[in-house]
Amino acid sequence: MTVLAGFELPPALEASEPPEARGISRDAVRMLVSRRRTGEISHHPFTDLPSLLLPGDLVVVNTSATLPAAVRCGPGLVMHFSTALPDGSWLAELRAVRGHATQPYPGGSPGQALPLPGGAVATLAERVTGRLWRVRLSTAVVPYLLRHGSYIHYSYVASDWPAEAYQTVFATTPGSAEMPSASRPFTAEMIARLVVRGVTIAPLTLHTGVSSLEGDEQPYPEPYDIPPATARLVDATRQAGGRVVAVGTTVVRALETAAAAREHAAGGPLPASAGWTHHLVTPQAPPRVVDAPLQPSLDAERLRRGRPAPPVLRGRGGTVLSVARVRGRAPAPAVKSDRTPARESGSLRPARARRAVAFYAR
User: Does domain 2-66+162-357 have CATH number 3.40.50.300?
Assistant: First the structure.
């Protein structure tokens, strides 16, 4: 496993604006690749990705689009809509406004009705976790948010950005409270270069909830959809000796949910499936079909707030990559540890027997 040891992210190095705001492309960010078995660390621009993958590899991406999921619900109070539930209600978080940032709001009571802009009313049904409520809105949630909501952003982001800044190039189906940010550096040009390289790209959808889990919180169920063609491509890639590269832990969670279902069914092809996933990837339940996850690391933010880092997601045997959105001249080094793991990860090096950790940086 891997951890950022003794790393503190100075506020001046936080990525408080997207690359486009500085007049550069989305893919003009940096990566750090650390090969776990050899201890070798190398630095790359993200544009090196096609040359670090092999013909025959499969890159699986999340097509979920980001909702403007934050809505004011009273003086100094905002509601973050997180996840749609099967019964039509939503998980949502109440947060107190503190300047440009927000923090968890401990108040609220079951049955309380909160007036929202446009005449809508949100009713708190029950508290589901220490900070998340099950909420019912008096109107359809997604159309309401598209009209009245704003985008959730982290406290170190000093201003709001245009809607396109919160979407990935793959975004087609609105549903995520926060952007599936692992694929944010991808551009149309990058996709073309991957295709020319002989790398296949396949879609699935998993709508993400609010991601800033507290230290004692477990990830909650999320809706997902794996198309039949994507399931077939995963099986075909593995049978041909290629690698399955999952862009983000949302993709890992969806694919490994299908892999677990296949295992329970005593084998066979990876099933196309849709529904709600409760699946968690842990050292005790490692990935079965994902060779390499690729993901921006949020460890720096979690460490800055004094919260533990969640387990690293290790692929079946390929390189592992983790990426961090920070500013400055050089990414922080990754330090190996047998006990304390780092955040989300992904793959980049040809040698299947190697793993790596990497960081996107400004």
Answer: no
